[in-house]
Amino acid sequence: MASTLTASTMTVTLTESINLNGTNQGSSNSLSIASIAEVSKRIVTCPTSEITLVSFAAAASAGTFIDADVRYVRITNLDDTNFVSLNIEGEGSTDFTIRLDASASIMFVGSLVDYADISAYVLENLSAIKTVADTANCDLEIFVASA
């Protein structure tokens, strides 16, 4: 059986809306990402002990996406009070941790091959995003789009 799925262009729009002293200071920017043929969207409860949210490698498996095919990742903290820490891991020993506040989102756009490095200017593939909730369990929405 041949697939009848047709890849499509995904549009991501970021909008800031604020009026200061009677003047609109907001903006809206759109990004089109061509040839998206796979999306995964789920909500995961993040506990106060570390878990792996998503993994990236050369081959797909349960919870693992092909790093060369991924074009967009968004993680949103659905909690209205508590933050989580996200550990962004490279395929070497390089990783970095950032805070994702309540109701905040982070996005990664583009191939995850040669994506990040915290210690030098030698980029390496992302291998995983892990998380831990600071105070209490938090629900996180994860959206991944791949070619």
Can you give the helix content as a percent range? under 10%
Approximately what portion of the residues adopt beta-strand conformation?
over 45%
Extended strand count: 13
As laid out across the biggest beta sheet, the strand order is 7-6-12-9-10
What does the overall shape look like?
Answer: globular
Largest sheet: 5 strands, mixed
Order of helices and strands: EEEEEEEEEEEEE
Q: Radius of gyration, Cα only, in angstroms?
A: 17 Å
Number of helices: 0
Report how far apart the termini are: 20 Å
Average pLDDT rating: 91
Low-confidence regions: none
Q: Structural class of the secondary elements? A: mainly beta
Explain this structure to me?
With 147 residues, the protein is mostly beta strands. It is built from no helices and 13 strands. It has strands spanning 8-16, 19-20, 23-24, 27-36, 38-46, 51-57, 64-66, 70-77, 84-90, 95-100, 105-109, 126-133, 138-146. The chain has a five-stranded mixed beta sheet with strand order 7-6-12-9-10, with no helix packed on it. Strands 5-13-8-11 form a four-stranded antiparallel beta sheet, with no helix packed on it. A two-stranded antiparallel ribbon has the order 1-4. Strand 9 and strand 10 (95-100) form a beta hairpin. The relative contact order is 0.28. The model has no long low-confidence stretch (mean pLDDT 91).
